[in-house]
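Letters spell out the chain; the tokens describe the backbone. To illustrate:

===
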Amino acid sequence: MKDLLKKLIPSAVWNRLHWVVAWVGAVKNRFPSREMVVIGVTGTNGKSTVVQLAHDIFSGFGLNVASTSSIRFRIKDREEVNKLKMTMPGRFALQDFLRAAARAGCQFAILEVTSEGLRQNRAAFVNFDAAVLTNVRPEHIESHGSFEKYRKAKGDLFNKLKIKKDKIKKISGVKLDDASAHYYAGFSADEKVGYGLLKENGRAGVKKHFTPENIKFSAAGASFTLEGEKYSSPMLGDFNLYNVLAAIALARAFEIPPACIKKAIANFKGAPGRLEVLQTRPFLVCVDYAHTPDALESVYRVARSFWVKNGGRLIGVLGAAGGGRDKWKRPKMGAIAEEFCDEIILTDEDPYTEDPEKIVAAVARGIKEKKYKKIMDRRLAIRQALQSAKPGDAVLITGKGAEKTMMTKFGALPWDEKAVVLEELGELSKK
């Protein structure tokens, strides 16, 4: 019924309705965002990690912080799992959350902001004081209509910095190595900060740059020097280094001292379901949310660089989301799996109302030379991967991460990837 209404009612009408609902939610809660500093983090990949790390940095400095992400909602020391199957809460829910944060005495709210959420006015009447960009890669193209429209939708977050608050400076943070850096840096702000690994990209109209030196990657994480300070992070991969730099740039813009930032980064092992290692011996097992071609390639590179050694194999378990979302990327995911994995198992992953078999078939079209297995039951696919693994191998299960449901034609069904993997490992150890 909902899908039918969306087809019959023009999008402009829907957007106006969403705006009205957002206004009602804001009025009901007495515009809570006016009572705290609100930071929005947007981008294609890395948002949840940046939000989680920034929360730890700000709270470690003694500030009262609230945050929302695709993983969980946090108000000071309280937290709950995000079970909504959407990154941004709805218009009423978001305003309710901000009021609860204000009631708890929070000085900062750090929100994961999506293009869909911005387009649907979920962030309407939220007064943002800072906006941070992680990266922009092709995603939600079918929903937005084009990559340019997708990019522009994320720009709406930066545009919201025009709304002033008394004595609160407006801050924008941009990944300078991103091809769209100039676009996002072009929005007005009282202070613009940039971060990146490439010094030649340190322009984009940004005066304050955070570019690390003496970068070293290892199986233990990454270390680098920034502003004369030595940092270390247990997270793997250059993509996580970018996430760390985004959090540093944000924290320094709010004058949090390096000593506090360094401590939080050293203790932050990563967001749940993001390159989360569940076992290292006799073979490594990891779950990750990777649901875009860029993200999938990044996690496979980490596995190849740090986990697969001495003749070991990389076993990949993957699928693709349904719901008519970005069908173009399905064969690309298969092609990336073929490039990096020694064994490929294709399986079901959030089909929504689509035929799961057709989704998997689309992923398989990207696999040209290597053999693959198709096991539609996701638990059985995971079981097969674990049973196939030998000492020195790495099993990487992607697509679900820390999500708690599987979206099917029957609605949201309970699914906890980590719990399933640990259960299957427990059964395997008994044999």
